[in-house]
Design a protein that fits this description.
There is one protein chain. Strands 1-2 form a two-stranded antiparallel sheet. The protein is elongated. The protein is an alpha+beta fold.
Length: 77
């Protein structure tokens, strides 16, 4: 049985092997932030973002955003 510490170590090693996690997180977060700004009023601290490496080596992207208001578009009716 793999302990929780071994799982975290494995995730860290996979991250270091595949990409620079800080840089890729920053780029993706910036892209999501820019996209959301098109649809509402958001501040940078209103976006929480993370990438989780699953046991099979795939990635799960998680984000939660707080928008102060949404823009209303007539074409959405």
């Amino acid at each position: 049985m793999i302990t929780e510490a071994e799982k975290r170590l494995n995730q860290a090693l996979i991250l270091e092997k595949h990409f620079n996690p800080k840089k890729i997180r920053s780029v993706i977060k910036s892209d999501i932030f820019s996209l959301l700004k098109n649809y509402g009023d958001i501040e940078s601290e209103g976006l929480h973002f993370d990438i989780v490496i699953l046991d099979d080596g795939s990635y799960e992207v998680e984000f939660k955003a707080k928008l102060n208001h949404l823009k209303m578009f007539k074409s959405f009716n």
